[in-house]
Amino acid sequence: MTFKPHTLTAILTASILSACTLAPNYHRPEVNAPVIDDNNARQANAVRAVETEWQAYFADPRLKALIDAALQHNTDLRLAVLNADAARAQYGIQRSELFPSIGASGAMTRNRVSQDLSPTGQAYISEQYSVGLGVTAWELDLFGKVRSLNNAAVHNYFAARHTADAAKISIIAAVAKSYFAEKSAQESMDYADKTLKTRQESHRLSEISHKAGVISDIALNQSLSQIEQAKAAYAAAKTQRDAARNALTVLVGGVLPENLPQGKPLTLEAQFNSQIPAGLSSDILTQRPDILSAEEQLKAANAQIGAARAAFFPSIKLTGSGGFATGELDNLFHGTARVWSFSPQINIPIFTWGAVKSGLDLVKVRKEMSIVQYEQAVQNAFRDTSDALNAQKTLSEQAAAQEKIAQATGKVLQLTEMRHKHGVSSSLDLLDAQRQSFAAETALINVRLQQLNNRVDLYKAFGGGVK
């Protein structure tokens, strides 16, 4: 088969045009993000947090097992992954529009022509056999409409993948915080129970002293009040522990795994990898999955403009087929049985009553919305990171001060107990020392929990690895 020069020119021109789109050139928006304190930036150095996998970031093997179970069974995460799979399938469907759909067909027709309809006046049986290849309504993408839609589909797929990664990070953070809350509440329960037993023994001695007339009714009732306060603290901590455990159960998919490893003390987790590894810069923060997803959505909206612009121009669809058709099966593939058909179709928009223009206006507005959403994602990332870094410094100072308070009040309690045994300090002095020591230890447990949660917030703020 040979082509005339003007035919080759037309094919070449169509191929060049189909490789182009009418979408505007994409430029990443400039975002006025808040400036993060340089001191915090120097504090966070070394490797990127975005490259730190969660297995290396957390120390507790029990926590790691729970995170692994949540990544496998959490329903929210499964839905996010399925959304990404659906976007990938949609991209595959859209991508197929770039190429002609070729199908093979074969048919056999056998029918009886009645005597009344027969041109010879005699009834007869007619047979027809055919085979062929055909192209059905392939749009010649002269103005890049199909290619623009394909680009939008692939960016939507990437956005869905990044959204799934962001969901993984959120699940990891939620599991870690719930686990730390459970462990911290259990620690508070143990301390409250220990305090309760001590106070019950003190109350027993106070009753003996009261009967002997050594202490007043006020001191005795205050001793009883201390017991009830310890019981209330124990009950409150148990409520928090149960709530955290229920949250863990939901996060891992409904049932906690069996044969979980033994957990480590919270102090070990607080000391492990305490400094978040990161080189704090806008480039790192823009690698967060949620920001990447927002940018991919913006790119998809930008590509949609190309498709909307192409709607103003004519569209050409080609339909054709070729093959063999004959009335006798033995002659099916003979040259005399060759058949073909070619049916191009052109559609030129003339009067659409503003529908095409409104479609272009709509996708432009959606792009502006995507720009705003991208800016929000970047600004929120800077805010989350700045807040987490500021909290890291202040919580370290707060924890150090609270630990000294707990040590000091504990020492005061020991000295007061010794003085009380020798009759130097009153029962009221002892009750006051017990109350202060209990409050200081409880506050220290809470501050350490805040530190652990801050470590999780830093990991999440930097978009830690989710492999």
CATH superfamily: Outer membrane efflux proteins (OEP)
The CATH C-level name is: Mainly Alpha
How many β-strand runs?
4
pLDDT average, as an integer?
A: 83
- Please report the distance between the alpha carbons of the first and last residues: 55 Å
CATH topology: Outer membrane efflux proteins (OEP)
Q: What class, by secondary structure content?
A: alpha+beta
Radius of gyration (CA) equals 38 Å
> Strand arrangement, largest sheet?
1-2-3-4
Q: Classify the oligomer.
A: single chain
What proportion of the residues is helical, as a percent range? 55-70%
Can you put this structure into words, describing what you see?
- With about 475 residues, the protein is α+β, with helices and mostly antiparallel strands.
- It has a single domain, classed as Up-down Bundle (Outer membrane efflux proteins (OEP)), CATH 1.20.1600.10.
- About 65% of the residues lie in helices and about 10% in strands.
- It has helices at about 5-20, 40-45, 55, 60-75, 75-95, 145-210, 215-250, 265-270, 280-285, 290-310, 355-420, 425-460, and strands spanning about 100-115, 125-140, 315-325, 340-345.
- The protein has a four-stranded antiparallel β-sheet with strand order 1-2-3-4, with no helix packed on it.
- The relative contact order is 0.17.
- Residues about 1-15 and about 40-50 have low confidence and may be disordered.
